[in-house]
Amino acid sequence: MTGLTKPGPSRRRLRAQTLHPWINSLAATAALVISYLTYSALPPKEPDTEVALPRVIKVHWYEGLTSLFIQPTVSTRFDTKNVELVNDLTLSLQPDSVPRVAPQFKWHQTVKWLYREDRETIWWEFLSDPGPFMVTQEEPKQPSVEFIAEGWHPTPGRYTGTLTVHRAGQRDPLAKEFCLVFTPHNIAELRNRKEETAPDEFRSDTPVVAKDGCYHWDE
After folding, report:
1. Is 200 within 8 Å of 59 (Cβ atoms)?
2. Dihedral sign, Cα of residue 95, residue 191, residue 194, residue 115
3. Which of 10, 13, 97, 177 has its CA 20 to 30 A from that of 170?
4. What is the pLDDT of residues 173-209, one digit of tens each?
């Protein structure tokens, strides 16, 4: 009597065992495709833009023309497909004591700072006219902006300022508030300045700031 051989797996079972890994791979690929299509169909995420104020604000006054220089940092916290387009920057300065008239500032120009050996001081020069600029996560912007108010000079007291960043695409503007303090001594010094005198610095990191959190003359 010949020896009996153990029957091997049926063709159906072999086919099932062969197809099983392929089915899993196809299912995983299909899931990835569906996830990608779903993500692509979602609207692009808007940039999460922030505005930070500098520690120094510069003020220059001469013959009824007041210049206020401020260099904000406009940045986005997260990377997105979209970029943030800033259309305009505006500045308001409201005296806390009424009925003093609030100055009307306008964005005059963007400047660059340099050291003038002939004057032995820090001075500004024209860099660009007012205009839109783009902000991405890789490229935050720090424009040195000169705002001017014609026919107005500071008077002693506390002022509440608002720097507003206007954005494209009907997005809400971003407003950043601060306060600025002029003392009678500050005003007297400003009026004694000459045209070629460097702007005076008001800082938010001096010891006196701890009292009110405002920008004060850096004496």
Report:
1. yes
2. negative
3. 177
4. 999 999 999 999 999 988 887 777 889 999 998 877 6
Question: 50 exposed, middle or buried (CB, 10 Å; 0-12, 13-18, 19+)?
Answer: middle
The CA–CA distances, whole Å, from 129 to 62, 66, 89, 92, 136 equal 22, 18, 12, 20, 21
Q: Is residue 148 within 8 Å of residue 66, measured between CB atoms?
A: yes
pTM (2 decimals)?
A: 0.76
User: Which token pair is 196?
Assistant: 């070629």
Question: DSSP characters for 23-39?
Answer: HHHHHHHHHHHHHHHHH
How many angstroms separate the CA atoms of 186 and 207, rounded?
17
Residue 6: partners with Cβ closer than 8 Å, 6 or more residues away: none
Query: What confidence score (pLDDT) does residue 120 get?
Result: 80
Residue 28 sits at φ, ψ, to 5 deg, of: -65, -40
